[in-house]
Write a structure and sequence with these properties.
Chain lengths: 331, 331, 331
């Protein structure tokens, strides 16, 4: 990072738990910082000493390869040390509470905690406890229940803004763009976080999904709802697809994966409704032939799935860097 | 460590398996070395190159978060490389003997082995085999069956001595202090290791627990036994609580967790029997409301649980450093 | 490495998938490079900055301690960063294809993929896809089904050549040496890879095993087949034993482990048929008393098992180094 990155004096957020109250200037700081780190990642030596000897604890109570590896790599490229907490072999199975586990990691020296949990609110609870104890631990929500997944939405935002300006990504680039989010909105923490950041950025957000997966109350987010795909795709600049959990079928929320694909699956043909330059995102892992046709996923001119993964490392480096730079951060 | 740490010429112990024959000068070297490393941990850059490129193998045949993470962090802060041996996915499930596994790790280049096993004596057996083969591998017992857990007792000793002298912790500070160890003494390797170090340091050690968990033969350690809590607590300077395994109830060794807490659980009220400055330890993970009341555990003026965890990293750095500094150690 | 290692201009192989078409000059480059790295491993500081900040992803779909740890240590000693992919907790359990997992790791920044899979050909498929996408990812086959295990055969070759010239190991040293490979040839990917490298090196290779484990078609490799042990051992310079899977008994391919040992187990007594200086190898983990007598395994004058493990780290450092040095390799 060094010279290319100014100290972000405007940044005061130690925890990153939700995007609900992120301002445009805050989103822009994340985008600019991530762009600087992406330059680092394009060098031959992709490592900076920013967090040398500082400890990032990964607490993934819910399994994940993609997000955990992405954070692990981001932390390594900042020269941090990493503690991986594996719930299966942990003190939790001996009856310890999550808060006591977090306190133990803090007492060992962890300054950052990246937390995924199947229950909404767990990262907030841990962050509140860390603050109450007067620690400087910085907590990042890496996905909590059906609530939020801020780092995913921020990497989506970064990927989208870079479409229009690779070196100067900023929110205003998305103003007025029509973005369709398609699929299982109801159960998606990715969708919720994206709703906050994209509407804050001024995008024209449309949601589409079957009624069982898109309840009417989502209108409160200031977005347009569609229970059919076509009006959502019409003239869209961007289509964001969401992962469909196979268990939704057992819950009778969708008739079958095949029928879902027929109604809401994205294909080259359906994209003809959109702007000619339309691009498609998916947070992964993709069920090929369900949310997206295989041909579309593999079409590098349209699919941004690989760029999202690549952006993820730069964005997560930026988040850890920013969290660690607040006046009262640990160290 | 550099200048602040003298080479401990007096240190000749390559393996750390038991505290039974540790002398006061040896304990004092551990305490002083740990104090030096704790200064490192209070710096912004918490890392030293002491064990750079040397390999520490963690062999945890019994699951553990706390102790394994503590050793992993200690090794990382000494700049060592770490091999984590996960029994579940290992050659052991293919029928390899533990000794052959240890030999393989040695042949790969491991110079330190940190071993936990549910059978007493396994670390000793591996250490003896490593010596027989003429290797310079240093073996540390991280908990073997019901036998010993030396690094836990040493971090307890360090935590206690630092109460009286944070910068110059040494055994003599505990001379004559009344220390009550309360709970499931019978099944506790932590208690056994502590008995050795605390009596060597000259403390006045009292044990308390129900008769099923405190057999009379423990008197041989030169300590006072109590089958009721009150006389153990009377005028005590320190109360060490032990973890109660929930399965003791199924074994009919205790009637119920609730009744155990009523008879031997430590609370603010009960501590009125002790010295006014009394402090409470627990090796973790704690069953809240069983060994300790929740209020007591969270009372930072009395509970030393977090300090124990923090001390653990410094003490384990000291142990790895000392083991690696013996004249015949690997490297 | 630095000065002692010339840039291997003659090396053009980015993937290492099979030894079938390895030439003698290529094998010799591996041997010489490994010898240079072994010198590094004999220094006090066993680390070189060769792959600093480059990412090695370990994808072990089939469990392994030995090979995975060996690669992990090799990568660490080259200063690489490592991503460990654990199939149990992975996106694969969410239905993602292996190719999509590999693409995700590439998009995150992995430049090397070390792949083990129970299906033959998986590493080849991933390598082909990485090439098709125009990535510079280098793929190493760490064992695929019953097909090949090139790094094991290369470490065996290195161990053998070093018997005759520790500092200048090269293929010609094995010309005309009688090498007996004994055991479950049929199910051994180690045997297949060794057949290619040893015959290329000009050794006189003999295979021995019961008819159920040594099908006649192995004659096509230009080797001599024996369904009894004695003629294979007669005047042999080297005996390579293979691991016997216990499940072969349930498949009725061998009558019992005991009977197998009586017919094909290697003991000091049986080695009297061989050259006086005969040495014995085994890829590990060993079933003591089955493939080898316990006494023989522990006889450091005859058994090369520990040297094989030690060689493994140097050879794998050499392979990662060479794969990363091709003109079009990532970075």
């Amino acid at each position: 990072m060094t010279s290319s990155l100014h100290t972000p004096l405007q940044w005061h957020r130690r925890h990153i738990l939700s995007l609900q109250d992120f301002s445009v200037p805050e989103l822009d700081i994340v985008l600019q910082t991530a762009a600087s780190f992406q330059e680092v990642l394009n060098r031959r030596t992709k490592k900076v000493p920013t967090l040398q000897a500082r400890v990032v604890a990964n607490l993934f109570f819910e399994s994940s390869t993609r997000t955990r590896n992405s954070f692990e790599l981001a932390a390594k490229r900042l020269s941090a040390d990493i503690l991986n907490f594996a719930p299966g072999t942990s003190a939790l199975s001996k009856g310890e509470t999550i808060l006591d586990t977090a306190k133990t990691l803090w007492a060992m020296g962890a300054e950052f905690m990246v937390i995924r949990h199947q229950q909404s609110g767990v990262p907030h609870t841990i962050a509140a406890e860390m603050d109450r104890l007067g620690t400087q631990v910085a907590v990042l929500n890496a996905g909590d229940g059906l609530h939020e997944h801020p780092s995913q939405a921020l990497l989506d935002l970064f990927t989208l803004c870079q479409l229009y300006s690779p070196r100067q990504p900023r929110c205003e680039l998305l103003r007025g763009k029509k973005i369709a989010i398609v699929g299982d909105i109801r159960h998606s923490r990715v969708a919720r976080s994206n709703l906050y950041s994209l509407t804050t950025a001024g995008a024209d957000v449309h949601l589409a999904g079957p009624p069982t997966l898109l309840p009417p109350e989502f209108a409160k987010y200031g977005v347009t709802l569609h229970w059919q795909l076509e009006p959502a795709l019409a003239k869209a600049d961007i289509v964001m697809t969401l992962r469909l959990q196979r268990e939704r079928m057992d819950q009778h929320l969708i008739p079958s994966l095949r029928e879902y694909h027929q109604q809401f699956g994205i294909t080259h043909e359906r994209l003809r409704l959109c702007q000619p330059h339309v691009r498609v995102l998916h947070p992964g892992p993709v069920n090929r032939g369900v949310e997206l046709s295989s041909a579309l996923l593999d079409d590098g001119h349209v699919s941004l799935v690989n760029q999202q993964v690549t952006s993820g490392v730069a964005v997560r480096m930026a988040l850890l860097y920013l969290m660690g730079s607040t006046p009262d951060a640990g160290g």
